[in-house]
Specification:
42% helix; 17% strand; nine-stranded mixed beta sheet; 10 helices; TIM Barrel
């Protein structure tokens, strides 16, 4: 079975940039079906409504939906809960969060454990049932290499995830699972290590598209954040860059494309330095 274990709908919201996910649960599930996937997990940030809506749509069109949540724990780190029956509140300790997941009969996954944004739980990943050894939007590569190396050293169950925040991101980070085509069987198979992470990275062009859509949809909220937290000249630069997003699509997209590649290159060098000790 080919399974997408990490995806977000428009119910996922951010703090600095309000809009995270671009598409509805229905659209995400239908895209997974079009891609020929056997199952998809909906794991919105600290939300469960998308998973419930997606499960209903999955039954209609014949694709398995695993209800989940990407939970923010104390310290602003993330844990995935799969096979849940209800929302788990945020900002609990890691141990409290894992206990809450188990109480619902679910399993826990450590997503993007060594990511550049420091949202992963890093060396605490063995406390989870599985580790995300490949995350399709960790474009710096070194974050995933650190995760894979760590998983091998600790003999951990490994999975992959697209971390899809729009339909265009779906299907890049998949997990091949030996299981029957239902949520309970998939959860049981992951817990027992019957998994094989596969996939490729989301193209930079898709990341650029998603970023511009997010900024445009969150324009007022981001501008307010800039005014409240930035001082000159940083505020002036941020204001003008944000204003340029209103000119997309258009010739300005060449500028954003160049900016995206520059950011990608910078991220690679930064990640290499940050993860050096994990790769030796």
């Amino acid at each position: 079975m080919k399974v997408e274990l990490h995806s977000h709908t428009h119910y996922s919201k951010g703090e600095k940039i309000r809009i995270e996910g671009l598409n509805s649960p229905k659209e995400m599930v239908r895209q997974a079906k079009r891609l020929g996937l056997d199952a998809i997990a909906i794991t919105d940030h600290n939300e469960f409504r998308g998973a419930i809506e997606a499960e209903k749509e999955g039954r209609k069109i014949g694709i398995t939906v695993i209800k989940g949540e990407e939970i923010t724990i104390a310290g602003d780190r993330h844990v995935l809960g799969l096979g849940l029956t209800e929302k788990i509140k945020r900002d609990l300790s890691l141990e409290e969060t894992l206990d809450a997941i188990k109480a619902q009969g679910g399993i826990s996954i450590a997503p993007h454990p060594f990511d550049l944004a420091n949202k992963g739980i890093r060396e605490k990943a063995p406390k989870c049932d599985a580790i995300e050894a490949f995350n399709a939007i960790n474009l710096d590569r070194f974050s995933n290499r650190s995760a894979k190396k760590f998983a091998l050293e600790k003999n951990l169950v490994t999975v992959a995830g697209s971390d899809a925040h729009c339909i265009e991101m779906l299907g890049y980070g998949l997990t091949e699972i030996k299981a029957c085509n239902n949520a309970d069987s998939i959860i049981h198979a992951i817990k027992n290590g019957n998994t094989k992470p596969v996939g490729t990275y989301v193209p930079i062009s898709v990341i650029e598209y998603w970023s511009l859509k997010r900024f445009n949809a969150s324009y007022s909220q981001v501008m307010d954040y800039i005014y409240r937290h930035y001082s000159a000249p940083k505020r002036w630069v941020a204001e003008h860059l944000l204003a340029l997003t209103k000119k997309s699509p258009g010739k300005i997209d060449y500028f954003f494309k160049g900016l995206a590649y520059f950011s990608f290159g910078t991220a690679i060098f930064y990640s290499a330095a940050k993860n050096a000790k994990n790769l030796i």
